[in-house]
Amino acid sequence: MGWFWALVLRANALAGPFVMLLYPLYASIKAIESPFKEDDQLWLTYWVLYSFVTLLELVAAPVIAWIPLWSTIKLAVAAWLVLPQFRGGIIVYEHYVRPYFYRTVQNADAKLTDSQRKFLSSISPEARNSVAQFIDDNGSDAFDKIMAAATAQSRKNRGSS
């Protein structure tokens, strides 16, 4: 029976990097090159979850060392997350990560429209933080009013020059 466990451990050593890194890397590159958003979401979600599990392993390494067959369990979960037939990464992200993220992180960016995000990406980080604070304090509508007034003033100044 010892040979069986040796075989399982060797299989994990070979299959782990393929399932957890090489295939997701290949599929992520394909997703970047495809015109569809769904595959991008699948692979971004996978990498977020993979990073989280890796950080968890680093922090809890002494405890994880005592869990029997941890590498086999991790490989099976990674396969479930990776294989598009199961969409495990999307399921975990939508049911656990996203709700926790929005509950615990006060993120002004989640309240912004696409035009506001485009504007914020064009300014310095310091100005972006000030705008985010303004939106938190006064709301997204107040920011829209200021932007509309600034745009109108800019057009007026261009017209008079």
Q: What's the structural blueprint in terms of helices and strands?
A:
Layout: H1 2-33, H2 37-59, H3 61-64, H4 70-82, H5 88-104, H6 114-121, H7 125-138, H8 140-160
Helix pairs in contact: 1-2, 1-4, 2-5, 7-8
Key structural traits:
161 residues; mainly alpha; 2 domains; 8 helices; 82% helix; elongated; TB2_DP1_HVA22; membrane; transmembrane helix
Overall description:
Helix content is 82%, strand content 0%. By secondary structure, the protein is mostly helical. It has 2 domains: 2-104, no CATH class; 108-160. The longest helix has 32 residues, at 2-33. The protein is elongated.
Order of H and E elements: HHHHHHHH
The oligomeric status of these chains comes to: single chain
- The value of Rg in angstroms is 23 Å
Question: How confident overall, as mean pLDDT?
Answer: 78
Helical/strand content category: mainly alpha
The parts where pLDDT drops under 50 for at least 5 residues are none
* Total number of strands: 0
Organism: Sphagnum troendelagicum
Transmembrane segments: 6-26, 47-67
Family: Belongs to the DP1 family.
Keywords: Membrane, Transmembrane, Transmembrane helix
Please summarize what this structure is:
With 161 residues, the protein is mainly alpha-helical. It has helices at 2-33, 37-59, 61-64, 70-82, 88-104, 114-121, 125-138, 140-160.
